[in-house]
Amino acid sequence: MKVKVLFFAGLREQLGTSGEEIELPSSVTTVAGLRNFLSDKNQSWKTALAEGKAIRMAVNQDMVQPGARIQAGDEVAFFPPVTGG
Amino acid sequence: MKISVQSGDFDAGLELRNLSKDSRVGAVASFVGVVREVSMTLEHYPGMTQSAIRKIVEEAAARWQVMDCTVIHRHGALQPSDQIVLVAVASAHRGDAFAACEFIMDYLKTRAPFWKKEHRAGGAQWVEAKSADDKAAERWQDPAKKAG
Question: Disulfide: which of A2, A27, B33, B125 matches B84 by Cβ 3.0-4.6 Å?
Answer without folding.
Answer: B33
